[in-house]
Specification:
Distance between the termini: 51 Å
Shape: globular
Number of strands: 6
Helix content: 40-55%
CATH architecture of the largest domain: Up-down Bundle
Number of domains: 2
């Protein structure tokens, strides 16, 4: 196998590392491409064909994240990661860690960490790299990386729900939720929501949004019905999909283009959070993006979308 073939085999892993550090599909793909260019430019044969590109993509991602943090401070409204339809990297031995770290809730928790803490956590806790490899990747001593890992684990564990729902329970609950949503059944929706459910919308100031944030089963159920009413006016359809390893849905305009995505956090037998992403800049990799402003005007006028 040539070095180039070895790199192509590693692409899924490299993308998965970069995506978890950056929370962006586009930036992760760019980080992998930059790693590929550096790989091609290197004349020295690396000791480990896995560790070397993993370290490079990690360093690139840390630098990108530091720059992104500045931009995110000026972001309009709540920030959410770009949705991922499927994780290209599979490892049966770490399947649970991989799935857990991919959820919208986990990625939002990772946002609380410093870039170095985030990188150390991803490499060590998610992908199982040894501390010597982690230290080489982030340019810190092993002792420093162990301290970073401890702090990162503490921050992550503090924000996680106490009881995780298994895959089958999540899918069943999500199915009931989307059925109730399509029917506009406020009572049924309220029954499925946690008392302190959190609805958060990310439009980045680039798309209309009924609300950026809301709390409580009564309020959120009512808002979801308002959303459905607007959808019905213009013929928006709902496609249940697994997004970031969690139950969700892609909302399509009448012409089939992507309007928004919804993801659900499920724990303790209830929906704990609903994330609605409508920022068109974060949806282009999902599919052709609809003109949400035109659809919003159509909804206000009660006419079908173009």
């Amino acid at each position: 196998m040539t070095r180039d073939e070895e790199f192509q085999d590693l692409r899924p892993l490299l993308f998965s590392i970069a995506y978890r550090i950056l929370g962006s599909v586009v930036e992760a793909e760019d980080a992998v491409q930059d790693t590929w260019l550096r790989w091609q430019a290197t004349s020295t044969e690396p000791v480990s064909t896995k560790s070397y590109p993993s370290a490079v993509v990690t360093r690139i991602s840390i630098d990108v994240l530091r720059s992104a943090r500045v931009r995110r401070e000026a972001y309009v409204g709540p920030w959410m990661p770009e949705p991922l339809l499927a994780d290209p990297y599979e490892d049966p031995e770490r399947a649970a860690e991989l799935a857990d770290s991919l959820s919208t809730a986990a990625l939002l928790l990772l946002e609380r960490l410093s870039p170095l803490e985030r990188a150390v956590f991803v490499l060590r806790e998610v992908f199982g790299f040894g501390f010597p490899e982690v230290a080489s990747a982030v340019g810190r001593s092993e002792a420093a990386c162990r301290q970073l890992a401890v702090r990162a684990r503490r921050h992550m564990s503090e924000g996680r729900p106490r009881f995780e729902a298994d895959h089958r329970e999540r899918e069943e609950l999500a199915g009931r939720f989307f059925d109730s949503f399509r029917e506009g059944d406020v009572a049924a929706l309220r029954e499925l929501l946690a008392a302190d459910v959190h609805l958060v919308g990310d439009n980045g100031g680039k798309a209309p949004l009924i609300t950026q944030e809301a709390w409580g089963a009564d309020t959120v159920a009512g808002l979801m019905v308002q959303v459905l009413e607007r959808f019905d006016r213009i013929g928006v359809s709902l496609e249940p999909r697994t997004l970031n390893g969690q139950p969700g849905a892609i909302c399509h305009a009448p012409d089939g283009k992507v309007l928004s995505v919804l993801t659900l956090d499920v724990a303790e037998g209830r929906i704990q959070a609903i994330h609605a992403l409508v920022n068109p800049d974060k949806l282009a990799h999902v599919g052709p993006v609809a003109d949400i402003w035109a659809l919003s005007r159509a909804a206000e006028q009660g006419t079908p979308g173009e």
